[in-house]
């Protein structure tokens, strides 16, 4: 039986609803050999995940998902694997982002309360949402409060009715800065769900070529926004350019029909992806 992994998971330390320990327990129950905790712009959950993994016999790769801007493209996501997550400079940079994220969460709650007031409903408290977050206050935590108050039926309803209309823009890392940070920290940079940047293959090819000159090492070929043909294209693109390819469910615990390990049901990421990441790290070192 093939050994499988999931290299893109989120915990309560960013915008997931499971703790790192809970994610490891789920992975153990699913028979996954390895996982990567890749929270958004924070590494605060990694030590807990690694410790839980060691106890459960699940390999945990330290990872980080940077929210990046590149050229005219906003909210591009860059995964940094196997980086030194305890680096003091990284901690300072991420603290600034965490502070900004907290301020964004507070601003979103403020806007939601304005909308609730027009509906004749009592306001919600950012403290309630923050209590659900292991780290930075995220929109899923606010959604959970809205559901608990009976203001939304489910997570999707909370986003459609409140979180999307009341959103506040977030800050992004410059791509050059994010790629340089991953390299400095001895990590391996992988472009997350590339087709969310653009569906035009010529444009995507050009972007990947440009990022390769800046230190990109791989692409996430299997994810929840790619169909089979797009995944095949990304695998072929990676192999042609001498890049590695990876895959993961991007599991937050809030998406309808998305499961750890299998994504929308058919994902099967082999352990060879972990071996490829380890080889890439050694080569870059």
UniProtKB/TrEMBL annotation:
Coiled-coil regions in this chain?
none
An example of a GO molecular function for this protein is: 5'-3' DNA exonuclease activity
Upper lineage: Bacteria, Pseudomonadati, Thermodesulfobacteriota, Desulfuromonadia, Geobacterales
Q: Which domain of life is it from?
A: Bacteria
**Locate the Polymerase/histidinol phosphatase N-terminal domain: which residues?**
5-70
Cross-referenced SMART domains: POLIIIAc (SM00481)
Protein name, per record:
PHP domain-containing protein
